[in-house]
Amino acid sequence: MSEAPETLYDALGGHAGVAAVVDEMYVRVLADVELAHFFADTDLERLKRMQTAFISAMVDGPANYSGAELTEIHRGRGIERQHFSRFCSHMLDALNEREVKPNLIDQVLGRLAMFSDKVTGATNVGG
Ligand code: HEM
Question: Could you state, in order of their start, the residue ranges of all structural domains in the chain?
Answer without folding.
Answer: 11-62+69-120
